[in-house]
């Protein structure tokens, strides 16, 4: 596989990493997604269903790519998810509601422009999924393992940063008393 094949695969792999992380966070705690969907105007019963369906579609997209299922399916899933996220951001902007983003679990960020700006990136990942080079199951699993290591490292950096901030806060509080 040449360098251009890796470049073509990049957006789909990056999108899969984001969807994997996002889906797992939403499974871990469905409440932020349920609250966001309810705030967008869905009835609570439908919001509960959405809190199951959305992470299933996110993780399903990753599974489709890893399993080597038809590229059109992965592409369609990327597209549907991207449009869904953009619609949520647009709805939040149009209604003027300040709705907490549940993209990667509970967050202080708000729905709106970030989801609209990300739509072209999701569509680029959808296009990329159609142009993934043919690989073996071992190759796809190795790519998944690398993506998991990268995702874990990203998550560890944010957790370490929060820990350092908390430590500084404790020291500042103890020194000021």
Which features does this protein show?
177 residues; mainly alpha; 80% helix; globular
Structural notes for this entry:
By secondary structure, the protein is mainly α. The protein has helices at 3-28, 31-39, 44-67, 71-95, 113-130, 137-176. The chain has six helices and no strands. Helix 1 (3-28) crosses helix 5 (113-130) and helix 2 crosses helix 3 (44-67).
Q: What's the number of extended β-strand segments?
A: 0
Broad structural category: mainly alpha
Output the number of helix runs. Answer: 6
Rg result: 18 Å
Summarize model confidence as the mean pLDDT.
Answer: 85
Give the end-to-end Cα distance, rounded to a whole number of Å: 62 Å
How many structural domains can be distinguished in the coordinates?
Answer: 1
Query: Which regions have little confidence, pLDDT < 50, spanning 5+ residues?
Result: none
Along the chain, the helix and strand elements come as HHHHHH
Largest sheet: none
Proportion of β residues? under 5%
What is the 3D shape?
globular
Helix content: over 70%
